[in-house]
Structure formats: C-alpha cells, structure tokens
Design a protein that fits this description.
Helix content is 45%, strand content 15%. It has helices at residues 2-25, 44-49, 63-81, 105-108, 121-133, 160-167, 188-208, 226-231, 241-244, 250-262; strands at 34-38, 57-60, 93-96, 112-118, 138-143, 173-179, 217-219, 236-239. Helix 5 links the parallel strand 4 and strand 5 (138-143).
Amino acid sequence: MTDIKRTLTENLARVRERIAAACASARRAPESVKLIAVTKYAGLDVLKVMPDVGLTDLGESRAPELVKRAAAINEFLSRRARDLSAGAMPRPHWHMIGHLQRNKVKLVLPWTEMVHSVDSLRLAEEVNTRAGSLDRVVDVLLQVNCSGEESKFGVAVGAVTHLAEMIAPLPHISLCGLMTMAPYTEDETVIRSTFTRCQELFDEIRHDLDVGPQFRHLSMGMSHDFEIAIACGATIVRIGTALFEGLPTVREETADADAVSAD
C-alpha cells in the first residue's frame, strides 16, 4: 500500500503541475479547475488511498460500478474511522460521468454528488423525481455532443438551449453547466473546435436563459486533452490514465483472482 500511495502521489503532482501550467497560459487560477479522478480501471487498493493524497472527487462511467465502488470505499472508511489512531478522512464525492439509463437513476442517486451526463428531458425528469423522493437537489450537467460523432452520447448542439430551458425549473435539479467529450485524435484543431463550441453554447445559455449563478461549470478534457480544455474554459477535468500510470488496475486484480482460483 505504501508503494501505491507513493506512485499515486507522484502521478497526482505531475497532473497538478500540468493543470497549473495550462491555467497560467490561460491566465486563470489553478483553483478554478476541479480535478475528478476517473476510477474506471483503478484497482480497489488504489481507491483506498485516494483520500489520503487529497483525491476526493471521483468519477465513474458505469452505474453498477459506481455503486459497488462507492459502497466499498464507504465501508472501508467507516472501519478506518473506528480506529482512532487512523484519523478521520473525508468521504469521496462521486460523479456519474458516463451514459445513464433512466432505470439506473434510482441505483446511483444515493451515492452521487453530480450527474454529468443528462442528455434528455425524460432522464432529467427521472433524476428530479428520484431526487425528490430523497429530499435532495441534485447537481447535473447537460452532456452535449459537440463533435457530432454518432458513437457519442449527448444532446445535439441545436437542441441544448431548449433542453436547458425545460430542465432549469425542475425543483430537485440544479443545472450547473455543460459537459462534452472531444474526439480521440492527435489533431488539436479538432479538439479545440469541439471544446470551443461547448464554451460558446455555455455562454449563450448563461446570457439568454435565467439559469441562475450555479450554472458555472464546463466539464471538458481528459488525460490526453485537458490542457486544451482548460484553455477553452473548462472548470472540471476528468483524469484517469495520467493519474493511475504504473498502478494496479481492475484487470490485473481480476487476473490475479483468476490465477488464485485456478491454483
């Protein structure tokens, strides 16, 4: 566990340096960008040390995995809290960053701080209903398909403003901004164009609609393109690969378990 913590600390330091450099180039404060650690392939031992190194905003793209991981970490931290010598650790804030089906909303909402991937009125209404039953107001972002790729989820660019107008009044939803993903490409012009379009939509909605002061987030950028996203106004970046390089993955844990079973 000590080696895992050391490697994660070093990786996090490098990522934060890159964020700070990108913010400096954009004449922004590093504090204006929130880092979400995408846990998709991180092993459970890695997850357990994340609070120790200051990673408390965690993102998952699959609903069942979010619930399973959030419950496991919650139990681990609860056991740890009973050991007075360990000291209290902050509970992670979980972000649902992947496509969310309406029948999974009830499953993830008790664990989720923010849903980044609302892409229809029906989904927003389901989140609103389930949040009401929990007596909560849930932060959401509208996912926009700014790249126009058929393989990506998200609201079409031309429909975003109308959808935002319908969602904003829902009483148990707080519409906090937009999310998008750029194509996975080495062409920085294509990436920048995608992020710039999302920033333009964000500014249009904030100018044209009464969405409130909480509408202030642009969730854009992953390990391979977050510097460009920051230059285009991202306030949230979703980082996985760059944080977990050299650390145990879910696939490795599964392979080890299979090997033990085979023995």
